[in-house]
Amino acid sequence: MGGFEVGWRDAKGEHRRPLNETEEVEFETGLPVRGFPSYRGQRNFPGLYWSATTGGHVGFESWLERDHAMLLDFTPEVTGLLSQPLWLFWQNDKGRVVSHAPDYFARFEDGRGLLVDCRPLDRVDERSAAKFAVTRLACEAVGWGYRVVGMVDPVRMANVRWLAGYRHPRHATTAGMAERLMAVFSVPSPLVGQASLLGDPIAVLPAVFHLLWAGRLRADLAKPLTDTTLVSRAEAW
C-alpha cells in the first residue's frame, strides 16, 4: 500500500500534500472538499446545522450525520468542526489510487484531531469496511483519532436535540444569574423544583438548559429529561 496523501480546500484554494507533512494544517478552519447535493426524490436528507462551537454552519447529508454533528458540537472539549474536511488518497495492493472523504474532522482543545465516518453499522459493506480500515491506519500514523459511528441511543439523542434548542448564546443569562444557578445546583437536585427557587421556571429553565448544553451543569442523559431529573454542577457529577 502506498503512502497517504491529503487534499483539502481553504480560502486560498485547493491543496494536496503527503499526510505526514500536514501536522500544522488547521483542517477544521477549511472548506468542505465536496458539496451536499439536493435533488428531487433523493432518499437522504442533506442540510446545514448551526454549530455553537464554530459559530457557523456544518453540512450534513443525512439525519444520522446531523445527529453526530450535534453530538460533536455538544462535546465541550471540541473546539473546531468541519464536514467533508479532506480527501484521503492512497494506493491499494494493485497500485490503483483510492480516495475517501470522511464525514467530519473535529479538533479538540488539547490539539488532537479526530476523523469521523457516519454509517448505520448494518450498512457497512465490504468496500466501505476496507476504506474505513485504511482510514484508521492513516489516522494512527499521524496521531489522530478515528471513529465509525452508527445510530445513537434514542433517549440520549432526544435529550441532546432538546438541549441543542438552547445552544445559541442568546440563551445565556447574565453572569449573576448563571452563578446563582450554579449555586442552587451545587448538589444533585430536581430540575424544575430547584430552578423555580430563582423565579418563574418558564423564564429560568432556558438558562438551565443552556448551561446543560455548555457542560457547566450535568444530568443523566441516558434517561428522559423530566421535571424531576437530577441536575448538578459538572464538578459535582
From TrEMBL:
Protein name, UniProt field: TnsA-like heteromeric transposase endonuclease subunit
InterPro entries: TnsA-like
Bias type Basic and acidic residues, positions: 7-20
Segments for region (Disordered): 1-20
Keywords: Endonuclease, Hydrolase, Nuclease
Lineage: superkingdom: Bacteria
Organism: Streptomyces phyllanthi
Annotated GO MF terms: endonuclease activity
Record bears the keyword Hydrolase: yes
